[in-house]
Design goal:
five-stranded parallel beta sheet; alpha/beta; three-stranded antiparallel beta sheet; single chain; 11 strands; 211 residues
């Protein structure tokens, strides 16, 4: 959810099949071991119905045979437990892009080009100064978790530079204003006692995932 997905948590394989039948989600994440089924059988049932919804399977085993069985069942990807949430989100975004889905989370829409100090939001360029670029890049690297004022000052200005909180706040306000002009752009939230955090636009729905 923190990466911009709308998640439908489901406890059983039968629930997943009903969810897919009721209204196709953008992707399905299923464990190989479910209380009532094997996640690979759930994937086979989805494929047997002619549904091409991307399916990511997860299992505790690392053998080549287990991974191949997931793909043979019609899965699009296989992750070994324990699964890092960052990797799962990244793989979902990659799968949605490959399948041409328009529902790739907006939080993944920021594209940085450090060599040119250029950043865009879903293809729309942002005009940023070098300092603004470095601040936004630092926020993006710690999105949702938040980043302290001290770390933002260190990222935005060279060592030894004297930067007050008021100066930092003014730069953040300017970046906020520029992001606000682009529909679906992430927003910068103030975290009291911590600093700032970059978060997906709450008004822009992300991809819906049944998991």
């Amino acid at each position: 959810t923190s990466r911009g997905f709308a998640v439908d948590p489901l406890a059983r394989g039968a629930d997943a099949l009903r969810r897919v039948e009721a209204g196709r989600p953008d992707a399905v994440v299923a464990s190989v071991w479910l209380p009532d089924a094997d996640g690979r059988d759930v994937c086979r049932a989805i494929r047997a119905s002619g549904d091409a919804t991307p399916v990511v399977l997860m299992g505790a085993y690392r053998t080549l045979g287990d991974r191949l069985s997931a793909f043979s069942a019609g899965g699009d990807d296989y992750l070994t437990k324990p699964v890092a949430h960052e990797e799962l989100a990244a793989r979902l975004v990659a799968i949605l892009r490959r399948t041409g889905s328009a529902a790739v989370p907006r939080s993944g829409g920021l594209l940085f080009d450090p060599s040119e100090m250029h950043v865009s939001v879903d293809g729309t360029p942002l005009s940023l100064t070098p300092t603004e670029f470095r601040i936004l890049a630092a926020l993006h690297s710690r999105r949702d978790a938040g980043i302290s004022r001290g770390d933002l000052r260190a990222a935005g200005w060279p060592p030894g530079a004297i930067v007050t909180d008021n100066t930092l706040d003014a730069y953040v306000a300017r970046i906020r204003k520029k992001l606000g002009r682009v529909p679906g752009a992430p927003r910068i939230a103030t975290m009291r006692g911590v600093g700032y955090a970059l978060r997906a636009d709450a008004d822009t729905p992300g991809a819906r995932v049944a998991a």
